[in-house]
Amino acid sequence: MQAPVLNAANEEVGTRELKEDVFGIDVNEALLWEMVRMQEARRRQGTHKVKTRGEVSGSGKKLWRQKGTGRARVGTRKSPVWRGGGIVFGPTPRNYYYSMPKKKRRAALRSALAGKLRDGELLVVDSFGLTEIKTKALASVLEKLSAQNALIVTTGADELIDLSARNIPTVKVIRCEGLNVYDILRYDKLVFVGDALDKIQGGL
Asked: Which candidate among 33, 47, 62, 77 keeps its CA 20 to 30 Å from the CA of 192?
């Protein structure tokens, strides 16, 4: 399998070999769902909190005597049956973090990459040809590549790309080591710059 390598003008300047066991596999949608669910859970802060009857501010005085009034018996105003009282079984701070086996995580990443190739949404670019930090210049290149909504993968820190892309809300720049299923599926196009594709394939 091969993928064309493009330049900043969207012209083919070469080809790049694709591993069959990475890009030639069937897309496992159930595994992708499982991976995205895990990533979304890890993003949750878990800081939700309500007050129980022991934490609500108020007096503990009995509001009226136990018997003889004809009304239901009652204790403190902090009881959950009262407006402004404590909450029963409400949310409390917790950690939603959980993990998946490494083999499943790698299989999900391979499946996401194969899906992008299958849908024609994977691009390999030798260079964006940027000479200065210029958002307009990068946006122009992405427009030529039909990748206005894109996840750009680089091999390392590239100040020209990083700073030029930071003001484009539909573009995200990520390093090879940070490539993940959630971001791959979130953006329309997946753009590998330079040797990023080879580095990803080597790790899978």
From this structure: 33
